[in-house]
Amino acid sequence: MTTHRxxxxxxxxxxIASEALGQSNKPPKDYLAVAGPIRFANxxxxxxxxxxxxxxxxxxxxxxxxxxxxxxxxxxxxxxxxSPLKLSDVVRAKVDELQRLKQQNLxxxxxxxxxxxxxxLDFLLSQNTPDGKQISIVERxxxxxxxxxxRSGQPAVLLxxxxxxxxxxxxxxxxxxxxADRSTLLRQVSQVxxxxxxxxx
Length: 201
Fold this sequence. Notes:
This protein is α+β, with helices and mostly antiparallel strands. It has helices spanning 3-7, 87-102, 171-180, 183-191, and strands at residues 38-40, 43-52, 57-64, 74-81, 109-115, 118-128, 135-149, 155-167.
């Protein structure tokens, strides 16, 4: 299980811990008919990991050439729940998770934006070294939530997310750059063309 899956969840417990969801030698199954590559910010991202976590919940991860899901610099996420959920409830559930995390980790922060019936959630997470003295990973996420209809007519909630990371000695420069320019990634995610999805049988 990658650290990103430890960090990032959608309508499920934060600690999905199962080696059954790990990588295998087989190509990942494209559950959403969005095999990729997906182009974002002039970079091509390729399908690297997928999971069908429940009857209605699908998750796909995409990384650029040279990156790996278990240790990436930038990752794209597509999460889909094929259920007529209220979008504000979905976002509130994620914010509640972040609130609980923040009680144990002061680095955790978030901001929610709403426009035209869609939501953007911008949040920061971190993981410490085993001795707890230093930050070993810092991760910034921008999630865009939208209500969609699949090609087969199913109502669904689609999450398009971008996660960026820094490790060890790169953590401080990453946070300094983030303070200077938070808006670029927010703008890019808000303007991206959301993929049309179709659930694989």
